[in-house]
Amino acid sequence: MNIEITKKAYKQLLKIEKKDRETLLTFIVSFESYANFFDLKAEKLKGHANHYKLRKGNYRIVIEKISNKTIEVLAISHRRDIYNRLISILF
Question: Where are the domains of the chain?
């Protein structure tokens, strides 16, 4: 599976503590080993056709499904902040 990370998501990742950042990077890189999108077990965001969320500890990763073999990471943030920022991320 191909993974693309937006500039905004990359900047958000850099702001996270080093320990958590390494855990999240390992989690994101592990997506490459999945055969297709449905193996990720991502939850669909209500009201958005191709947007999903993944949970890793206290962090949420918002992704967009480009195809069954390609995803784009749109945002990475703490669970208390991600949903407040979601509007600015998706629009």
Answer: 2-90
Tell me the pLDDT tens digit for each residue of 39-67: 888 899 888 888 999 999 999 999 999 98
Q: Which two tokens stand for residue 81?
A: 């902040």
Alpha carbons 58 and 1: distance in angstroms, whole number? 25
Tokens 């990475």 map to which residue? Answer: 76
Q: Coil, strand, or helix at residue 47?
A: coil
Of 61, 55, 49, 50, whose CA–CA distance to 86 is shortest? 61
CATH 3.40.630.30 fits 2-90, yes or no: no
Question: In degrees rounded to 5, what are phi and psi of residue 37?
Answer: -60, -40
pTM value is 0.88
